[in-house]
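Q: Entry one of two.
A:
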Amino acid sequence: MDEETNVMQELIDVMERIDMKFDDIMFANVVLNGSDKIKAFLPPGWQDADMDCFKSQLIRMGNYNSGYGCQTLYGTIVFKNSAWLERGEYDGAEWWELKKMPSWKQVKAIG
């Protein structure tokens, strides 16, 4: 099943659901594979021009097929609160997945 998803709008929607904004991003790297490989990179300590370039590249990526098949979009977006988004994938279906740094109490309680 083909599911056309806009890269920028998908990221905006996910960040709204987790109550994050672009200014909350610490650094990021998003890559759209395909015939025209496009990379959106945001370095640590980014300046306004870096963020403008990052958003511009996300917009340039346009739509991709997020349904089953081959994974197309890769990346990690790390937030200032130590949470991050990474791409989840199963059998070619893909999505942004929120990850959170565990506390020491959670780590210590394992096993």
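Q: Entry two of two.
A:
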Amino acid sequence: MDQAAGLREWASRREADVGSCPQHVVEALVALARQGGRAPRPASVPPSPALASATQGRSGGEPVLMVLGLPGCQLDRVRELLTHWHDGGRRWVGRPERWRLVPVSVADAHLPLLVEQQSHWALWVESDAEAFRRAWRLLLTLAEGPCPRRLLVVHPPGITRQGLLDNLRQAAAHYFGIELVVLA
């Protein structure tokens, strides 16, 4: 007997009891068992744009890159970096135009679900004087819940590894257990 069948049997036995578990709780437990232990998505939270974009057209074979720390209207900056890396001989990029780039906010209610579903994550790091502070706060917020444990650092072309990117990589690993992959 599987777990869902056991819960259904238990629920049917308990229905006769007046003080038994409420029906909505039984239904939630049965639904949870059917999902293999994963919590269902709250019904009151509408799908976020990131969730909709990440799940749209998944069978097309195009790689998806979830990008944290960059507004959606600026995703062309990430595509420019992918093109820069491709032109520099990084063959793993493939054709930069094939990547589906999805902006994600650390405040997105669906972030835990996206972390479970998506394998390619990136963190945008700007090159200005406040870049470390912004990236640090984003990582701090991210580490408070379920989060990707490995992020590709995407940034404007021309930033060197020494300084900002290395400091951020070391701090993320030491304090949060998050690996930042730096390709500068």
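A: Comment on entry two: Residues 81 and 157 are 6 Å apart (CA to CA). Residues 14-20, 37-42 have pLDDT under 50 and may be disordered.
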